[in-house]
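Archive entry. Fields below.
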Amino acid sequence: MIHIKRLQEDGADIIALIGEIDASSSIELDLSIAKSVGEGFKKILVDCSALEYISSAGLGVFMSYIEEFKDRNIKMVLFGMSDKVANTFSILGLNELLQIGRDKVQAKQLINEV
Amino acid sequence: MRSKAISRILFSVGVITWLALLFTDISILLSSVNNIKPDVPIWLPGIILNLFIVSLFYYYKIKIERDEVLNFVDLLWRVFATGLIATVVSLGLRLVEYLLGDTTLTRHIVFRDLVYIINLGLMIGFLMMAFAAWKRLILYQKSKWLLRLWAFFEIGLLISLLYNSFKFPVVEWLYGTLLGIFVVVGLVLSGNMKWVAFLNFRQKWTSLLLLLLTVFYLLYIIYTNSSLSESIGNSSPYFTEYRYHVFILSLIVFVTIYSIFSFLVILFNLPTTSVFEQKLEEVVNFQRISQSIQTEQSEESVYNILLETSVSSVFADAAWLEIHSNAHEHKLFTYKITDKESYDIINHLKTHNVKGVLDQGSEKTKNLSKHLASLKGSRFRSILAFPIYVKGQNIGTLALLKELPESFNKEMTKIVSTFSNQAGISIENFRLMEEALQNERYKEELKIAKMVQKSLLPTILEQDQDFDIAAFSESADEVGGDYYDTLRVDKHLISIIIADVSGKGTTAAFHMSQMKGIFHSLAQHDIEPSNFMVQANQALVYCLERGSFISATYFIINTQTKTIRYARAGHCPVLYYCAGSSSSEYLKDKGVALGMVRNKTYSSFIQSNTFQYKPGDIMVLYTDGVTEAKDGKGEEFGYERLSNLVNEANGMAPSEIQNHLINKLYEFSGTSNIDDDYTTMIVKFK
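PREDICTED_STRUCTURE:
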C-alpha cells in the first residue's frame, strides 16, 4: 500500500511517497507523476524518506520517465531514501540514470543546477 | 389415441341411440294416433333419449376437457360453430318443408315427428357442447369451493336423468324443486367470469360477436323445438316430450344465462381492457428486464430493453437513456427523439440550473414537467427522469417525455422507477459475470504462461570437469520472469546467464523467451560480456514496453586460463566465496539493467570485469526473490544471511548447498507459500 502526498515549494512539485510500492501501487505512482507533469511542473522532487520498499515495477515507473523528462527538459530528483531502498536503486543501476539527493536541501540544490 | 377411440365409440353410440330414439318414438306416436297398442313400451324412448344425452355428455367432455391447446376464443368458436351447424340444418328442414308445401306428407305425423327428433338431437348436441365449453370457462382459475359446486351441479344433473328415465309418479313439487335448484346453482356458477379479464381488446370483440350469434342460435333452436313439440302434442301426447325433462330444461336455462352473462360482462369490460392489458404488459416487461441478465449478450441490449419497456409501460412519446461510461464519455440511446433534441433539453435544464431532474447528484426521481414549459421549440411538455445505479454509482439517466403537460402520474413513476432499479441490478450482475469470466480467462492465460516459462528453463546444464553446477527455480502462483541458462562456446569457454524480467504474468514470460533467444544467438561466439549486454539492450529496446526492463548477469568461464569474465546489468550482485580466504563477497560493480537506457549511450553504463578462480571457490547466482524473502515480521532474508549460509556450507557440493539454501529460505519465511520467484544457480570450481 502506498500513500502519495503532493505539495508545492519554490516552484517545485514535491511528491512524497509513504509506504510500499509494489506492482499494483506502482500505478498510483505513475499517475501522480503524470499528473504533476500534466500540470506543467518542470521541477519534480520525490520524497522517499517514508518509502519502505519499492519493487521492480515501481522502479520501472521512474525509469519510464527518464527519456521523456530529458526531451521535455523536466528535472526530477529523488531524495531521503533509506539504505535498503537506495540499494534497490543502485543494484539496477538506476542511481546512474536518476538524480538522487541525500536530503531535501541537497535535492533542491541539485534541481536548481542548470 | 385411447381418448380418440373412446370419443369415436361415444359418437357412434350417440348416432345409434338417436336412430333408436327416432324409430321408437315414431312407432309409439304412430300407434297412438291410430289407436293401436304400440309394439314398444312407451317408456323406452325416454330411456333411449337419456342414453343419447349421456353419450353426448361424455363425448364432449372428452373432446373439450382433454384439449389443452384450446384458448377462450377457440372455445367460443367451437360453441358458435356447433350452433351454426344446428341452425343451418334446422333451417334446411324448414326450407324442405316450405318447398314441399302444405301437403299430406308435411302434415303427416311421422314427418313432423322426424323433423322434431332431428331438431331435438341438434339442440341437445348444441347444449352439451356449450355445457362442456362453459364448464371450462367457469373453472378457469378455480377454487376448491367452486370445484365442489360444479361437481354437485354436474352430478345432480346426471342423476336427474334417472328421474326422467323412470316415470316415477310425477310429483309436481319434486319436479319444480329440482328445476329450481339447478337454475339457482346454474346462476351462481354463471358468476364466474374470470376468463374475460384475460382477453385482449381484439379477442373481446370476437367473443362478443360469437356469443351474440350463439345466443341467437340458442333462442332459435329452442323456439323451433318448442313450437314443434307443441304441434305434435296437439295430435298426440305419446311422444318424447322434452318440455318436462329436468335435465334438458336446466341445461337450456344454464347455457342461455351463461351466454348472456358472458356477453354482457365482456361488453362492460371493453372500456377497461386497455388497463388490464397494460398491467399484463408491465409484468411481461418486468420479466424481460429480469431475464435480460441471463440471455442478453451485452449491456447495450439491457439498455435498449429498459428504454423500450419503460416507454411502452407509460406510453411515453419519446425517451432517451444517457449512459456515462466514464467522466468524459457518454452514450445516448434514444426513442423517437433525435440526439440534438435530447441535448437541447439536457442543456436547457443545465443552463436554467434546474436541480434534481437530470443531474448526477440527484437521488430522487422527480416529475418536473413545469421546467420544460420554458423551453421554446420543443414539442415536449412533460419529463420524467430516473437515475440508474450500479453498485451505488450513478451510471446514467433515463428520461421519458410526453407532449402533454403534467401527464405522468404516480403509478407510472413507480413502475419506471422499478424498471430502472431492475435494469441497474441486471447491469450489475452482468458486469459481475463479465468480471468472473475475465478472471477465468486470466487464470487460464496464467497457466499457459507458467507452462511456457517452465519450458524456457533448461533441463540440463552444461557440465565441465572444472566445476560442478546446480540450479533451482520456483515461481509463485503468478508467473515470474526468472531465467537462467548455460551454453558451451567451445572446448574451454562456457557462458552462463541469470536474468530477471520485471513484471509478472504473460508479458514476463514473453520477455523471458526473448531473453533466451538473445542469449542463444549472442553467446554462440566468444563475445565480450559488456558487448553482450550492449547488443542485448539494443535488441530489447524494440520489444520492451514502457517501464519494463530486464536485469541480467552474463558470465564467460574460461577453463583454460581459469578466468571468469562477466558483466552485470542491474542484476543482484553475485556472491563469490573465495576458498583461499574462507570469506565471501558480493561483486557490486557498475551496470544498468537492460531496457533502461534506450539509446546508444548504454555502452557507457556497462562494464566487463575479469577475475581468476581457484578450486573450492563458489559462485552463487540468484534473483531478488531470495534476498527479499520475508519472515513473519516482514524482515527480509537479506545479503548477510545469504553470505553466512554459503560460508557455512562451503564444503558441500552445489546441489547440497542449494538444498540447504532452499530449506533455510522456507524455514525463514515460515510458510511453504512463496509470494515471489526464487532462482539460484550455484557453481563450485574444482
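CURATOR_NOTE: The radius of gyration of chain B is 49 Å.
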